[in-house]
Amino acid sequence: MTDPRDDVDVWLHAEVEPIHPPPGTFERIRKQARRRKRRRALVAAASAGAVAVVTVLAVVALPKVVPSVLHLRKTSVGSSAARGTFRPRSDVVTTPTPDASTPHTAPGQLPPVPAHFAPTSVTFVGLDTGWVIGQAGTPGHCYNGYICTSVARTDTHGGTWYGVHAPPTGAPQGASGVSQIRFLEGINGWAFGPQLWATHDGGQIWTQISTGGLRVTSLETVGSEAFAVFARCTGNGTDFAAGCTRFYLYSSPASSDAWRPVPGLAGGFGAPGGGAGSAAVVLTSGRGYFYTPAGTLFSGPVTDGAAWTGAARAALPCLPGTASASGRPSGGQLAAYGAGGLALACPAAGAGGAAGGAGGAGGGAGGGAGGADQQETIYGSADGGQTWQRSGALTTAGPATSLAAAGDGVMVLGTGACIDVSADNGARWRQAQVGPAGGFSYVGMTSTVQGVAVPADASLHEVWFTFDRGQSWTAWPIRGG
Of all residues in the chain, what percent carry a pLDDT higher than 90? Predict the structure, then answer.
């Protein structure tokens, strides 16, 4: 009888000697493992470097963010949820749905300009890059159903615009809202009139600054500092700068929100006779000037925190008058240029501010009604306001709303009906632009050649530009590419 065990069982129960690998196999495996670890480390380092580069670029260049008609639900637009929602990408941006409630992505596009953009203020840094602020979108379809404050930016000197983030507040309404905007460069910016909001990251995050119940009626910035006029006012509705009876000049390092009274001016200044008035601050590269409601001019350095003192030997030729709707004076219009150059446009006595009655290009809506001829006298100072001389005079088609002096003899005067220009420091004038209806609330020069103006009628959805020293002006709509 044969053995019942299967040959397979014999093989399974037999001792088996493993086959040894060829010589050097284990060493090759160890070398391959080390190479894989090195590759993983290099990939991780490269990824970290890419993130660092993106982070730096996000600081230097304005990121593509949700258009300003969309707002977050917090006063400071800086919660972790906000950062997650608004994280920029190079190939995808966020655009609003028709009800502006939920964003969707659109590849390869800049954020669009919100519909019906009505600009009330413009600011430029250099010749190409600027911002406008105003009300946009369709009422009832904005944040909380009523806040439509929006901001748009251009990098093509106004040729095309795109939407960027805006402070989550409304139009001026008594002590609340904003109507004006300023940027120092592409990083530090402010929205004001009457509230004060600041951004230090190119507009990704806007934070409201406490003003102790005072209203901000004027703000300019130069170098590394920002200066603002804080006022005690009682105006209601859109007239946020009405009924202002006391004015203070505050300053802060541009990169922070440490606002303090300017040394030497801490007590503030009242209007003549205890009535209402206005005040303004203008800046040059090294010096600032504070035009008080009583017509006195104070001056001081803009960089070292030294005290400001009286600049003129006597009061200026005219008072600033009461405030316009934008917060700027309705009477004397002051401009600064170069090293100690100043110009002042004074209306004829009794014409809205005479004798009893921009650091960077930036301005906003709020001029008087045009239509009636008005005499303006131009005064100049070459010594920082210590002495003044009559430069010239002109008859213009409406009350003056702003004056810009660009240097090289160029001056432009915005009025409630037109824009007038001088090429010889105010000695002779000519009318460069008539209209639109209501004239211009603001005019400013970004260089001796290029300038920008804001119509008093924000519903025109446009700003005006000159590229020939103010000799001609063209309306450019606020729209995307």
Answer: 62
Identify whether the C-beta of residue 233 lies closer than 8 Å to the C-beta of residue 195.
no
User: Which domains occur in the chain, in start order?
Assistant: 80-477 (2.130.10.10)
d(CA 477, CA 470): 19
Q: Which amino acid is at 330?
A: S
Low-confidence ranges of the chain (pLDDT < 70): 1-108, 350-362, 364-371, 481
**Residue carrying structure tokens 């800046």:** 283
The rounded distance, in Å, linking the Cα atoms of 349 and 356 is 8
Q: What is the DSSP string of 279-298?
A: -EEEE-SSEEEEE-TTS-EE
Q: Which of 187, 171, 176, 267 is nearest to 221 (CA)?
A: 187
Torsion over CA of 182, 185, 384 and 232, rounded to 10 degrees?
30
Q: Which two tokens stand for residue 340?
A: 């100690």
**Which residue in this structure is represented by tokens 């951004």?**
199
Give how far Cα 352 sits from Cα of 18, 52, 200, 377, Å.
Answer: 108, 56, 38, 13
Reference 199, options 128, 131, 137; nearest CA is: 131
CB atoms closer than 10 angstroms to residue 90: 10
Q: According to the model, what pLDDT value does residue 3 have?
A: 44
Peptide bond into 436 cis (omega under 30): yes
Quote helix, strand, coil % in the chain, to nearest 5. Answer: 10, 35, 50
Q: Which long-range CB contacts under 8 A does 95-101 form with residues at least 24 apart? A: 95/66, 95/67, 96/66, 96/67, 96/69, 96/70, 98/141, 99/141, 100/69, 100/70, 100/137, 100/141, 100/142, 100/143
pTM: 0.76
How far from the centroid of its chain's Cα atoms is residue 212's Cα?
Answer: 22
